[in-house]
Amino acid sequence: MNEAVVGIDIGGTNTSFGLVSREGKVLSKGSLKTRDFEEAHELVQAVCADLKLQIQSLQKQYPGIRLLGAGVGAPNANPYTGMVEYAPNLSWKGVVPLQKMFSDELETTAKITNDAKAAALGEQMFGAAQGSRNFLVITLGTGLGSGIVANGEMIYGHDGFAGELGHVLVEKNGRLCGCGRHGCLETYCSATGIVRTYLELKPETDASVDSREITRRALEGEPEAQEAYRFTGETLGYALSNFAAVTSPEMIILFGGLVKAGDLLLNPVRTAFEANLLNIYKGKIKIKISELHETDAALLGSASLIYRQVFKE
After folding, report:
1. Which residues, 6 or more positions from 156, have their beta carbon under 8 angstroms from its beta carbon?
2. Any idea what DSSP says for residue 94?
């Protein structure tokens, strides 16, 4: 082994980072609590201090190994400018030059993108979308993230923020979203969305219930929990049938905590999806589960930003 890439994933709660081989093996990794750092430069310095130790250790193990660069996935990251712009789930204010910060601190090339788009690129390079040039990745976490790949290329749009499928409106005057609008898909199809659905179905429940507890209750046969999953899956499948009409993907890959519910979610998703597809698409588009290990997927996705560039060159 003579090459490695840094992968960094910055989330609202945790920041994970590590070194990734060309074959998609996570060679080393670490994590920090994002909220422990009020300012972006403080987080960057702490992450890079740990990474430098990881790099030194790897260089001892593999003398002559080259660091090709650092890929970073972060909320509201703009790949065109290298900036994180007004990220709602981070404490940083305004526009932050995150790409330059990591490049300067690690003294290497750095590239950034939205975290869900990084996940999609990771699927294309290392996961379920290998060999596919047209697919969607939907991440079902705290919100609903997405990455759209068409003709082999990620869709970024004119400003770097295209493909915000979580903020497609699915209910007129619906639930209030963190973006300030009402009725966004992620307010219904996400970890927080299913909690809201469950509390509407069973209002006497302790408001601290989370999606994992709802999954447990659904698997044990509780009707309200099962109905919450049916509604969530049906809503998502309906929305996906509309998304398919835009890019005609070969597959749609689902990733995130809600997917652990298995058929509780997938059966209503697939049923609603096929029922609402245009006839010309019926039976042609697969809905698949991510093949990437959950704890490593973010690092692989971020690292793929650099490997894609290297392969193109």
Report:
1. 79, 80, 117, 162, 163
2. S
Torsion of CA 126, 296, 10, 163, to 10 degrees: 40
What is the pTM assigned to this prediction? 0.89
Contact 186/167 with Cβ under 8 angstroms? yes
Q: Say which residues have a Cβ less than 8 Å from residue 301's Cβ, sequence separation at least 6.
A: 7, 9, 71, 73, 115, 118, 119, 120, 121, 122, 123, 292
Question: Of 162, 154, 164, nearest to 308 (Cα)?
Answer: 154
Q: Name the nearest CA neighbour of 28 among 37, 18, 36.
A: 18
Whether 245 contacts 283, CB under 8 Å: no
pLDDT digit string, tens, across residues 163-218: 999 999 999 999 999 889 999 999 999 999 999 999 999 999 998 999 999 999 99
**Domains of the chain with CATH codes:** 3-121+294-312 (3.30.420.40), 131-289 (3.30.420.40)
